[in-house]
Amino acid sequence: MNKEGIHTVVVVDDHSLFARSLEKLINSFSNFRVLFHAKNGVELQDRINKGEKLPDIILLDINMPVMNGYETAEWIMENHPKIKILALSMEDDEQTILKMLRKGAKGYLLKDINPEILNTALKELMEKGFYHSEKVSETLLHSISPDEEGIIMNFKENELIFIQLACSEMTYKEIADVMGLSPKTIDGYRQDLFKRLKIKNRVGLVIFALKKNLIKI
Amino acid sequence: MNKEGIHTVVVVDDHSLFARSLEKLINSFSNFRVLFHAKNGVELQDRINKGEKLPDIILLDINMPVMNGYETAEWIMENHPKIKILALSMEDDEQTILKMLRKGAKGYLLKDINPEILNTALKELMEKGFYHSEKVSETLLHSISPDEEGIIMNFKENELIFIQLACSEMTYKEIADVMGLSPKTIDGYRQDLFKRLKIKNRVGLVIFALKKNLIKI
DNA sequence: TTTTTAAAGGGGTTTTTCCCTGTTTATTTG
DNA sequence: CAAATAAACAGGGAAAAACCCCTTTAAAAA
Known about the structure:
Structural class of chain A: alpha/beta
Distance between the termini of chain A: 44 Å
Strand order of the largest sheet of chain A: 2-1-3-4-5-6
Oligomer: homodimer
């Protein structure tokens, strides 16, 4: 906060149409000014390392091509932990929200909110130090315990490759071939994953992989 | 266009954060003014039917809860065909783009463009009557012929239900039960779809359904 | 050295996939 | 109108793939 009681904001979002519109909106709020905006984490690092003024708040998009929101949040927390991160995303799936909050975000906003909520979020962020919308609070309640999630989600390299290949039209025999393993080993991976993920068949695996963003279609 | 040579724009988008930011951005362009913005097609209908001034351009989001972009575009084309529709969307999948262009959109913009491109698009739309970004032009080239697509995509009611159920962990026997049909009939649906969609197995069907937005996860 | 883990095999059931046939009911057309 | 045609539904039979449980081996970790 500078001498006039104005809080400063930096927008990190590769959707520059959105970013610049957002900038105009935020500048229209009293007490908030946008310092600059960056297309991704790398650009943010560059500008901050080159001595650009540090903001009070960083509005951080999650889906960015070069250095995404998770990595960027990590870097911010390590190097400038005083900056408050407000995650911005289209996605409202639990996985994404939780991951971002664990990386140190002080708030999570869906991009489809109205301007008043953004203003509220920014104000609350400066006053209380955090902001959580109803949906996020709900998500936090529903969230499974981190260790249970760890058991489920800690996939070994080969398991991840198998999952991705299983989300194609290949037979297990073909998957075994391209992975250079015995079909019996592949069957072992399959069986182990079915048990851990509590799924009944390959379609369940595809759905799981999609929900957890293990594959893209 | 009014007497001062100013083109008018209406924004239809349920993401009011985005919509209002966009409004500020467009108003910052010379020659363009936003008349109002609506949260969805129904609100647009209401305001236009109540005698609100007709714009030159409607910026139309595709994903809206109440009356989506497709339906809204249809209504605009039927009732006010002089208005130029510029579709706005996060999605860049061919299906979505093509569908919107067929509904009469004069242009298609991804939301992750920069402000200059929006300005260019608006200007070109008024001058040439259409605007197509590189990605859209590319999509148009890749697009399959409408009739071939028709054969593929004209699903009968039962086929659609079957596809959706096949994208779950149910066995075909279970699907037959809930649909009140013989497993053999279900097998017929399956076989016919595999042939028409040129897919090899059930995973292929799941992937297809996801790509064509026949199911949501 | 004991335990754990990754890879692989044996052997079996169930489900999926495939092809071909037949019935019934609309729909089209000669 | 009657005959041909198309469609929705269903069955038989069989090979391939998926699914399941239990064991073994070799190497790595504890």
